[in-house]
Design brief:
2 domains, 10% strand, 5-stranded parallel β-sheet, 343 residues, globular, alpha/beta
Length: 343
């Protein structure tokens, strides 16, 4: 044991010495650290959004009982009117979860796709004692990591027996994948771990390795395979969570309009995505969703505003967010798909 500790200590000392030598060398041969390039903005998604508040686990959430001319959040933190505290056993409960395309960005409460979907069910209701509720659990800027955490929270709420989960999530995972100091924690708290941030700020070697590889020209169309793997992992975790709670889970195709994408592409954070590359990334993330769905025997609901229909500018407010009419069409197609299955 003593011999092992001696060998271990010697090797550890050698490693530390080599790292120290590399760090000293980097201070002679590498340019000075520019800390401004480190992404670290915990208040990014709460700043300027009066309907959003910080959340200790999910990073941020909707503010219960909030109301303005456009958005209304109920006491349970869902967008829309109040739901019954206790649903009847014969009632059907659908939870639509995701980001701003589920929440209904810049449209009124009754113009989100979950609200229209609930109205479709109400119009077709056959029996007075049987109601279908569609809960809008979309939160603007949510990632797949936050959606997974939120889904755990919803399914643990014994007052809501969820029959179907509709998952519509992708875009924010793509946005965050362009962050040079990307880490899974950024997907929830918009901050890398404290130890990584400290090292990046104080070690020129670590900073170069994470942040400054390549020229400014090289900060275009950078792939992030770790972000793609995290997205896939989160989708699989959602499916497993639904199975453990005897709940049916389905994926919904994310809405998208190519005509709103500028010719120069997009620069959400630190890397600019050109127009062809952004479309390629969107299709790659979509392929991952379909791969997971096929392997796990999960249905993917397509609709008229998906990536299969790239040119529908009049149905979108911007690149991703449908108009009220677009949400109604999306809800119609989802309703028709749900009508074909038993739940």
């Amino acid at each position: 044991m003593k011999q092992f500790l001696t060998i271990f200590g010697t090797n550890l000392l050698i490693v530390i010495s080599l790292l120290g030598l590399l760090e000293i060398s980097s201070r002679y041969f590498l340019p000075p650290v520019n800390n401004a390039t480190i992404f670290d903005d915990k208040s990014l998604r709460t700043r300027g959004r009066s309907f959003i508040e910080e959340h200790p686990i999910r990073g941020f959430s909707l503010k219960p009982n909030f109301k303005n001319n456009l958005y209304q959040i109920n006491s349970q933190g869902f967008r829309g009117n109040e739901f019954p505290k206790h649903f009847k056993p014969q009632d059907q409960v659908i939870v639509a979860i995701g980001e701003s395309t589920t929440f209904g960005w810049q449209v009124k409460n009754q113009q989100s796709y979950p609200a229209y979907l609930m109205q479709y069910f109400a119009n077709k209701q056959q029996a007075n004692d049987h109601l279908t509720y569609v809960i809008n659990a979309g939160i603007p800027s949510y990632t797949s990591s936050q959606t997974l955490l939120y889904l755990k929270e919803i399914l643990s709420n014994k007052e809501i027996k969820v029959d179907v989960i509709l998952v519509n999530i992708m875009w924010n995972d793509i946005w965050y994948s362009s962050i040079k100091n990307w880490h899974p924690d950024i997907l929830v708290h918009q901050q890398a771990p404290a130890w990584l941030t400290w090292l990046t700020k104080h070690s020129r070697l670590v900073h170069w390795f994470i942040m400054d590889k390549g020229s400014e020209q090289g900060l275009i169309d950078i792939k992030n395979n770790a972000a793609l793997r995290q997205y896939e992992q989160n989708l699989r975790a959602m499916i497993l969570l639904a199975q453990e709670n005897n709940t049916k889970l389905l994926f919904v195709e994310p809405p998208f309009d190519l005509d709103h994408l500028p010719k120069e592409g997009l620069k959400e954070f630190q890397v600019r995505y050109s127009k062809p590359f952004f479309l390629q990334q969107a299709k790659k993330y979509r392929q991952i969703m379909h791969k997971v769905a096929k392997e796990e025997n999960i249905m993917v609901i397509n609709h008229s505003l998906s990536l299969d229909q790239l040119h529908q500018k009049t149905l979108f407010l911007d690149l991703l967010h449908p108009t009220a009419e677009g949400n109604a069409i999306m809800a119609r197609d989802i309703y028709n798909a749900l009508a074909q299955i038993q739940f």
